[in-house]
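User: Please predict the structure of the protein below. I'd like the answer in structure-token form so I can feed it into my own downstream comparison script.

Assistant: Understood. Taking the following sequence of 253 residues as input:
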Amino acid sequence: MRTNLNGKTALVTGASRGIGRATALALAAAGARVLVHFSSAEPAADAVVETIRASGGSAEKVAADLSTANGPHELARQVRELVGELVGERLDILVANAGISKASPIAETTVDDFDRLFAVNVRAPYFLVQQLLPVLGEGSSVVLLSSLAARSPVGNLSAYAASKGAVDTLVKHFAASLGERGIRVNAVAPGVVETDMSNFAKTDAGRDYTLGMQALKRVAQPDDIAGAALFLASDAARWVTGDTLRVDGGSKL
């Protein structure tokens, strides 16, 4: 079944690399206009926009530092302006992919580390959804990024895991609150993915550890996660909301 997103507009946060980049390209390939968010990697975001346009798609870049208290509000302001210009005050798809990780033993985790993880991974998507409510409506889909770490111990990721557990909770509350408006809210929960955030997976030891906890014996690529985000964003998932979809190759079964 081919996903058709013609005429729809999507925002993908953290879209300059990794899972965000792959998701932006997948949504564009399905016909969506894509707003490519970045924080500091502008050349990489430009490359994503150029790739989409070179394939006949439509894309714009938007910048905001989501680690700051006002970052989500500033991003939403830009998006509301762009959406108004493009399609008349409507955002069909939000993929809140931007996130950070920090591996640290409990005894060595600092308050600053903890606060930054929650600022980017929890506070930012919460207030981004809030500030985009004026342009989200019937048929809109919100996809958040959770993690295998939210349900199972993986390395020294206790603070990161707690932030992703909060995302799983937000999914249920957002879905329950926004369902009356016809807005669906779900999450994808990847396992280990070969991205800059999981550089250890590129080492022999990291690869062995990853394969040892998975049913499927290869390391995931960003495209593997993008396909799940595309599904949740599409009408094929029109009766799915409040759910966290595990996309982890059968990790920790």
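That's the full token string. The mean pLDDT is 94.
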